[in-house]
Amino acid sequence: MNDLAAAASRLPPVVLRERGQREVFCGLTGIVWLHRKLQDAFFLVVGSRTCAHLIQSAAGVMIFAEPRFATAILTDRDLAGLADAGDELERHCVRLLERRPNISTLFLVGSCPSEVIKLDLGKAAERLNAKLLPNVRVVAYSGSGIETTFTQGEDNALRAMVPLMPASTEKQLLVVGCVADIVEDQLRRAFEALGVGPVHFFPARRATDLPAVGPGTQLLLAQPFNGETVRALVARGATLLEAPYPFGAEGTTAWLQAAADAWEIPASHFQAVTQPLAERARTAMAHARTRLAGKRVFFMPDSQLEIPLARFLHRELGMSLLEVGTPYLDRQMVSAELELMPPDVTLSEGQHVERQLERVRASRPDLTVCGLGLANPLEAEGLATKWSIELVFTPIHGYDQAGDLAGIFARPLERRERLGL
């Protein structure tokens, strides 16, 4: 029995469910990477000045740049019902598209304020589509901070696009989840070398390039936080291929294996294609493994990437997992990852900040992966930390990024060593 089969035969770990105070970004943050990926789209947040400050700060937009996102700020008149916010929004959208004629898809993004006053952005999108189609399509989704975690902003955006996808019965592979363009190119080359195809990515680089979906579509997941999108695709006839996520050499190989099995690729050919790539990835990770092997890591819940990344750190870099927290445990999305987790790991779902901080202080991990709001206080207490949001913004998928991914976790320990801490 090989290592993956032996791990899969273990009982799933017990989950500690926590409910209490949370430390999270809101779903509007997803616009930061979505607007970079969807090159013909514009994201208009309907919200407050706080929403505008968040997006502009998170994206690091310079004053002379012309980004493809903005905020339609709700005023006191809108909140008090003294003005028709729908009519105001429609005028803003028309004026925006006159200024930006290269935009083919306009996303209306709901926020906490727009949802509190029950502003129906879906109806607004319908009215605008009646005027603007076929030149511009308007799509509405929620980026409200009431969501479980900030990465669900991407899930809501992609879910809103599923009804627009054309139907097809052709056998094809659909990779679901936003990845950097360079990662898409690398993964596409691997599929071509294996003989798997046709392959489409969702989202594509243009919002108008919607892939088809239907009974012949095989889904391979690139991100673990797109559960609602995946269920909507399955409802349209697609089949989900269960696999670990493509983080590290082992994870990427198992991910590609799921597609190769669905296309009945011979094992000899699969080995010939993937083995050199996996060996190169292991070589790239060797330095970080020397630094991290035997060290203890604690994951605070933040992005839903925690379980796949914990598997990577434990199995490929030799780290000991003290606790792996995730905002929401979607077993359908991480079933293959759970089978590879060590049987003695503590998994926690949800958040109770005070209790989790007590466990961090009691265990004194070598590295704590957490949100921005908790990192500086823990550093002040002498604990090494890594911002979990960096793992969302940075290309980390596939063989070619394995060394960079390992280095993200090794750098905080190297920095403390140089400082003599």
Describe, in plain words, how this protein is organized in 3D.
The protein has helices at 3-8, 31-37, 49-59, 76-79, 85-99, 112-116, 121-132, 152-161, 181-194, 227-235, 248-262, 267-292, 306-317, 331-338, 353-363, 372-380, 390-393, 402-419, and strands at residues 15-19, 41-47, 69-73, 105-110, 137-142, 172-176, 199-202, 217-221, 239-240, 296-299, 320-326, 347-351, 367-370, 385-387. The protein is α/β, with parallel strands linked by helices. The chain has three domains: 27-148, Nitrogenase molybdenum iron protein domain (Rossmann fold), CATH 3.40.50; 172-267, 3-Layer(aba) Sandwich (Rossmann fold), CATH 3.40.50.1980; 281-418, Rossmann fold, CATH 3.40.50.1980. The strands form three sheets. It has a six-stranded parallel beta sheet, with helices on both faces. Strand 10 (296-299), helix 13 and strand 11 form a beta-alpha-beta unit. Helix 5 crosses helix 7. It is globular, with a radius of gyration of 22 Å.
Helix content: 40-55%
Distance between the termini: 43 Å
Gross CATH architecture of the largest domain: 3-Layer(aba) Sandwich
Q: What count of helical segments does DSSP give? A: 18
Structural class: alpha/beta
Strand content: 15-25%
Query: How would you write the strand order of the largest sheet?
Result: 1-12-11-10-13-14
- Principal-axis shape equals globular
CATH topology-level name of the largest domain: Rossmann fold
| Rg measurement, Å | 22 Å
Q: How would a crystallographer describe the biggest sheet?
A: 6 strands, parallel
Ranges where pLDDT stays below 50 over 5 or more residues in a row are: none
Overall CATH class of the largest domain: Alpha Beta
* Number of domain modules: 3
The overall strand count is 14
CATH-defined superfamily of the largest domain: Nitrogenase molybdenum iron protein domain
Integer average pLDDT: 90
